[in-house]
Amino acid sequence: MSDHRFLRALARQPVDRTPVWIMRQAGRYLPEYRATRARAGSFVNLCKTPELACEVTLQPIARYPLDAAILFSDILTIPDAMGLGLSVEEGAGPRLAKPMRTHADIAALTAPDPEMDLRYVMDAVRLIRRELHDKVPLIGFAGSPWTLACYMIEGQGSASFARAKALALDDPATMHKLLDVVARSVTAYLAAQAAAGAQALMVFDTWGGLLAPDMFGEFSLHYLARIAQSLQSHNAAKSTPLILFSKGANAHLEALADTGCAALGLDWTIALGEARARVGGRVALQGNLDPAVLQATPAVIAAEVEAALADFGAHPGHVFNLGHGVTPDVDPERVKVMVDAVHAAGRRIRGG
Ligand code: CP3
Q1: pLDDT in tens, 162-183
Q2: Domain 5-350 in this protein, CATH class
Q3: Where are the domains positioned within the chain?
Q4: Is 223 a catalytic residue?
Q5: What separation in Å is there between the alpha carbon of 76 and the centre of ligand 1?
Q6: Catalytic pick from 74, 80, 205, 267?
Q7: Among 279, 228, 229, 226, CA closest to 249
Q8: What ligand 1 atom has the least distance to the C-alpha of 202?
Q9: Are 199 and 138 in contact (CB under 8 A)?
């Protein structure tokens, strides 16, 4: 068994204190990230240059005593490799130049070969593993088929992704064709990241919570389960823990826990103790402080961390995180307050 407490917690093994990492830990709230991004010229160049992706991956690890690093990349690398053309404008969010609007668009898509078409990601994983010197484990990731389909159809972010939902409702066969090719792409991409050295894998289903229950089962959960099952037939991936984060989908925790994943990511709209009571016997849980807490005073941040850890209790299988990504307006000093509070309270609760 690994002696990294992040991997031990994912396996629901005992740990000396609760491990912690932060979604979007390498990002715009860090001045050193903004400097590297400026040097890269654009976000996409930053992702596509392994040396720079490695540099920003390591920035939060150098600054804070975190228990895991996450590959610096984006979920939209797969649609980009499929030919949709990704750009990310300052302040405007991601954009795909060639959205998928017709059956013919979708029928023409093929799954990218990770070591050919996404070689820069695999090179970044290999370089980061080398530079980390096993200080902390590296997390690889991908978007869920549903969430990637949302962006591929819409071409950009949206509050409701109404076009994607309309396709699912009007022409489910075409939507399934899209989800199928994306699910095959995601599985191959995650398996390749594991083979390149990623020690845990996470799937971001950011927009799963937009779906009504039946649609969630048919268009999101089904493909998450397929990915979890398919990874079992890949040598490096089958022993690599998989974390599923379906934001806004707390109604489906039991079904998500039945997919065969090692852990579930939680957003902040459910109490940790309640989530543990529902599925903590089957999977580890990761989360789930409201990112807005990082705007509060240091004393309040520490109290909120303490309350969350106490709510989970001394049971095995907790990885502390935010319930969604850290926002660009956060003061890096407050992130330090949060991490230090997790160390102190997590040690007290676990007796380490
Ligand atoms: O967590 C990390 O530190 C690793 C890096 C990471 C990024 N994106 C970097 C990024 C990860 C894991 C992602 C995943 C991602 N990308 C998701 C799923 C997680 C989530 O937040 O729900 C989604 C939906 C995307 C799509 C995406 N890419 C969006 C919505 C944006 C815009 C964000 C914004 O606030 O403008 C991006 C661009 C992006 N990806 C940035 C970063 C640091 C900001 C780009 C910049 O530097 O200007």
Answers
A1: 999 999 999 999 999 999 999 9
A2: alpha beta
A3: 5-350
A4: no
A5: 9
A6: 74
A7: 279
A8: 12
A9: yes
